[in-house]
Design brief:
With 257 residues, the chain is mainly alpha-helical. The chain folds into three domains: 5-115, Rossmann fold (3-Layer(aba) Sandwich), CATH 3.40.50.300; 127-191, Enzyme I, Chain A, domain 2 (Orthogonal Bundle), CATH 1.10.274.50; 204-256. Helices cover 65% and strands 3% of the residues. A two-stranded parallel sheet has the order 1-2. Helix 3 packs antiparallel against helix 4 (84-92) and helix 6 (127-148) packs across helix 8. The radius of gyration is 31 Å and the shape is elongated. Residues 1-257 form the UvrD-like helicase ATP-binding domain.
Length: 257
Amino acid sequence: MKWTDKQQKVIDTRDRNILVSAAAGSGKTAVLVERIIKMITDEENPTDVNQLLVVTFTRAAASEMKERIREALEKMEEDNPNYLNVQKQLSLIHNANISTIDSFCARVVKDNFDKIDLDPNFRIADENEIEMLQSDIVEEMLEEYYLAADDEFMELAEKYSTGKTSDSIGELILRMYKFASGQIEPEKWIKEAISVYDVSSKEEMEQSKWMQGYLELQKNRLEGILSQLNIALTISESEDGPKCAKLLRLLLTSYRR
Ligand SMILES: Nc1ncnc2c1ncn2[C@@H]1O[C@H](COP(=O)(O)OP(=O)(O)OP(=O)(O)O)[C@@H](O)[C@H]1O
Ligand SMILES: [Mg+2]
């Protein structure tokens, strides 16, 4: 394969961090595979494939990666059956750390469970189990809070329970938790979110960033309603239009206010 100059540069660069960002299907994986092949078959300074750590986000990407490295090695072996190092790398590849980040972390933990005081029989929960555990925990926690009946909590419960479902605060807590978990620094984000409410007057609240955004949003919505009402008024004032101009004018003045 004839690599482009940029691809070749990525393949050959060593001893520094490289960030490769390129369009879908433009050859990122191919270049990464080639880098790995070059490293493990280097004549002077070869690295064994099981000494590398290659992590991906999905299982599919990890197995694609492993497969493509294996194919490249097999092709080299075909072209040169006496290439001993290639045979060695092919025998090592099933033990190589080419996996998802999650499974790599699980492996590190499993290999070191004795150092972190963890039951070696631990396993990774699936998404459904995690959701059930989270709901259970929130439920238990809310029960405790309801029993303690702390004033601040009771006020919160009263304001945020919609009445239809008793667990709506629980849902709200979990939703916020999930949203916060998606932020770069979840705890920092939560603290910032709280600080927004930490105002002493109505004026101060109106000056806050989120309130400005909220007011802007409401202003746009109102303008939308006003323009719809104006259109409706024009229609109702036309010759055979519905006779509701009076009502519409009333609505218009109240919305303008
Ligand atoms: N310089 C090149 N010349 C010819 N073919 C190339 C070149 N670079 C990559 N390809 C081919 O393009 C195809 C897509 O490459 P690859 O799968 O590596 O892309 P990718 O950027 O990883 O894609 P994705 O974003 O889907 O993961 C492969 O068949 C690869 O062999
Ligand atoms: Mg790819």
